[in-house]
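Annotated sample (chain length 858).
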Amino acid sequence: MIHSYNIWHAQSYNLLPGFLKVMSFFKTPYTLEHLELNGQWDTDPASWQEKLELYLPALQNGHYSTVITFNAIAGELLQKNHSCLYPGTSVIFCAPEHWDASLRKYHPNQTAIFSNPEITENIYLCMRLFPRTRQIILLLDNSRESQKILQSLPDVSSLSPDAKLIPLNPSTISDTVLLEYLADLDQHSVVLYYGWSSQPESASPVPADFFSEICSSSTVPVMVMREALLSYNVVGGFIASEEETGRRTANILCSLFQGGHLSLVPPERIQNQIILNWPQLKKHNITPARIPGNALLRNQPPSPWAARQQAITRFGCILTLSLLFIVAGILILSRRRQSMRRYDVISTHLPVRYFVADADGNILLSGLGNRELLDKRKYDIQHINDLHDIDLDMLMRTIRETIHTGQPTSFNFSFRDSWRTASFSKLPTHLFKREAVIWVSQNTTELQQSRREAQDNAERFLQTLKSIGDAVIVTDHNGKITIMNNVASSLTGWREEDSLGKPLQEIFNIISHKDDKPIPSPVDEVLHTRKIVELAAHTDLISRNGERHHIADSAAPIFDDKGNVTGTVLVFRDVTEQYQQREKREQLELEQKKLIAQLNNYVESERLLNNCLSQIVVEADFNHNIERIFSALTQQFGCDRISIGHFDNETRIFKLDHCWTAAELQETWNQEAKPIHAFYPYVQDRFEQDLLLSIPDCTQAPFPDIPQKTAVKSLIAAPIMVQGVLWRVLTIAFLREQKVFSEIDENIVRSSCKIIALAHIQNKQHAALCQTDLEKKKKLILNNIQIPIWLYDADGTLLRVNTAVSRYFGIQEILALEQAENVLFDESVPPSLRPLNQVILTGKPASRETRVNHFDFL
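Output written by the structure step:
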């Protein structure tokens, strides 16, 4: 929807409510987007076009199935951009001031709904309401509709031969003069307002407060042709209903959603109607005889007969509501009786029996099913003594104990060759106006038998576990120990009776055989994953007395019949001797492989470094040489981070010059970079003494500034010395795994530093040669320019002048450098007004004209 919510094109006030009211009943889902042109506040048509251009791509590719314009601004704007519309898009022009019907030849899927006012009917209404009128002041704007009204005035004048039509518009009279003119009108005049705009053929709205001034300045009745203006102090007029126009637009849109086509919908014009304000009619003494019978009167107070009808209607509504409440009460009572009967039937058939008793044994409430507990000679339960085949003393003690403590209690009792369980709970005192207990009992014979069978099975299971040769520990679903056999007690150093109920981590203390770090309990993982878990191959169990056993174990979940995990079983055994033998064998194999790898590593590193050195001799690009060295070091060490940095001489802060990080570890390094770089100033003296820094385990580093939880596993750094002075520091870091640096590794790092220093010296010599050539080229170019040039730095210090200065002003270069800009300006132009000072102060270009030696310069 394209619209403008303003006063002059007032349809927007009532068009949208009428449209949205109909669309609220439309059940098919749809998406509605608004383009608000803000014509009341933004009067520049170019700004409206800019707002529409944001939607033009979507309009061109058919993103919208339908486009609707409300009022003249939106209608005129869309007609100007009609060629940009997608051919299949439906277009509805609602209340346009002008619509070019010829557009249907190029885009037949469109129609228009007009609601323009009729000047003829309004003139006729003026004469009927005010028959003594001698002049009608017609206020018009410069729109097309106003031009049509002006052209029709000769024909309209015949409707009021006794009244003179006086058209006024902003082209003939100013706003101030208009207000003075309206204030001086005689009593036989009427003002008929259509619109007021000072810009021809534009949709610039008249401010709402100016129309209010028109109404307040006019001493005669004011009639209008637009519905939205009826809220002011106006009599009314023959007006098109914008709300009806909006409803009709919504009906057409709904027919489109249901498969209709706008090419079959002809343009329509909404019928106007007479709408009058009752207070203004009374103010101007208009008799009912002069009011048309089909007029719609607003703000009219109800007549006495209408007031009586309203009172009768209210009384009837109150009486009807009272009858409904009475009927509802009867229905509720009837349903309550039915519920009580259903409750008694259900209570009889339930296996649960209950009654409510007080501390004296009086029965306050009893279910119908309790009759089986009665003595056969009685038909109702009034006291505990009416029950039989039950231990009444125990029953009374339990009732009084529950009342005294307020805590629920229960016990099992035998009744007629069966077992029942009774549960007692104290009830709130306000229910029976005394302290009372509810007793609920049910038959639990099968449950008791099942419990005894379960106890027998558990005992057999326990004896089986204690006979197994491996250590066994059983826990509940919270990881607390419930069973431990003798083998487990021997290995852990805990007796079974001391360990029951304790968390497994407290008894089963396992660590890594390699680094003595604690290992998470396998039971926790079993409870989390619900799967069998086996311990890692290098696991040691620390017993209560500190003995160390290398173990192999596994843990498995225990499920109930519903698939819920009720606990875990942990089985383990001592494999210390087997592990020691295997460890010795693996150690010999590892040392052999390590020696071979070191030899291969040394040969390969020498080849890589020789290759880098040969490339540096012929390569002049220092950055490229650094990348080649980084690549060789990465291939040699398999490291994760390489950097070259230096110490700031003033702040001693360590700053990076070149770095490389493995892409997958960049985020991890960003978190570790700050604390790692912070400790470098503490080892600067070490680097200045040409000493190498090797840290195989950063968590155990002898430097307090390195955090113990750092993600950097290992680090090696070496100084890069140039002519015996520390120039840079080369650092190689490992983030994924630790690295134990051998003597070969340290030699490779040292050799790399010497190669980097050689590359730096070569780059410095090459840069010096290039700088000398560049200065010569700059001076040659500057002297070949035929315009006098003074070249300054950012502080205003003169650096150079070209030969054109000497040629134009007849002075030598040395003198030109001394006099600087004084060659151009004499003492009459102070330095603050000279362009050089202005550029330095403002940072913007500046210029000034001057004359020297009969030449004009800029």
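Annotation: The chain has six domains: 2-114, 119-239+271-298, 350-443, 449-574, 589-767, 785-857.
Annotation: The longest helix spans residues 304-349.
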